[in-house]
Amino acid sequence: MAIRTIREIGDPILNKKAKEVKEMTPRMKELISDMYDTMRHANGVGLAAPQVGILKRIIVIETDEESSYTLINPVILKREGEQRGYEGCLSVPGKTGIVTRPNQVVCEALNERMERCTIEAEGLLARCICHEMDHLEGHLYTEIAEELMDNEELEESRENTESGT
Ligand code: ZN
User: What is the Å distance from ligand 1's center to 46 Cα?
Assistant: First the structure.
C-alpha cells in the first residue's frame, strides 16, 4: 500500500492536460494501485492521475464498496439530462460547491487490462466521471461552481435550511 501526495489547488500541474496511456506497464499498474490507496485513505470517491502529479489519462472511481472503476483514456460519448448538486474535490480541501452536471453519461474507456469497455452512468457516478475527466483536461470544479463554500458555511446553510422558512 502506498499513499501518494495529493496536489492541491494552486499547483500548476492541476492545470495541465494529461496524456494518453499507450500501454500497460508495471509502473502504470503500481500507479493505479496507489491511486486507489490514496483515494480510499482520503475518503474520496474519485481520483485522477494529475492529482497525484502524473499527467496520464487515468481515473479511478469508487462510489461504494462494490463499484470501482478504472478508466484509462476515457471519452464521453453521450451526455443527457441535468443534475445540480454539491461537489467537492480532494485537491480543494475544506470546500464544497454547487455544480450542474449531466445526469447521465455514456463513457468509453480502457480498463486495467487495456480492454475497451463502455459504462452507462447516472447520478453520482455520472457526476464523478465528469468531474474526474475535467481533471484530465486541467480543469477544476471551482471554475464552474455557481457557489463555493467553506465546509463550515455549508453546515450552517444546511442547518438554516432545516430549521425553517
Ligand atoms: Zn477533483
Answer: 7
